[in-house]
Amino acid sequence: xAETPQHRLGELMEQSNPAFEExxxxxxxxxxxxxxxxLVLCDQPGSTIEELASTLExxxxxxxxxxxxxxxxxxxxxxxxxxxxxxxxxxxxxxxxPEAKEMLHEALDAWTATVHDVIDEFDGGDD
Length: 127
Prior knowledge:
This protein has one domain: Arc Repressor Mutant, subunit A (Orthogonal Bundle). It has helices at 9-13, 20-28, 32-43, 49-56, 60-72, 97-121, and strands spanning 76-82, 88-94. Helices cover 57% and strands 11% of the residues. It is mainly alpha-helical. Residues 24-89 form the Transcription regulator TrmB N-terminal domain.
């Protein structure tokens, strides 16, 4: 079950033409390095933490934390692959971009509906 992100939609309201990466970051409540990790995984599905650490030029612990957050948000899937010599390694794959876009639309639609309700319910009276 995906964790509910702490949206930072107010940050989007301050921008007239935000980049896709900024929208992704604000809507899912993730940091820039997590957004970059997601986008790299879109291009390199099935990557391990070691491979991502090398590609992103980050240490393994930072990549591991990014992947954990992305997994919690439902943006990344994790599969365990058994190694020939024993043991296993986790491989990570980003959800397909169209699926992520749909999640973005749904989150923004829900937020917009909430704001519309606030506007509609305001009666101007002193509470």
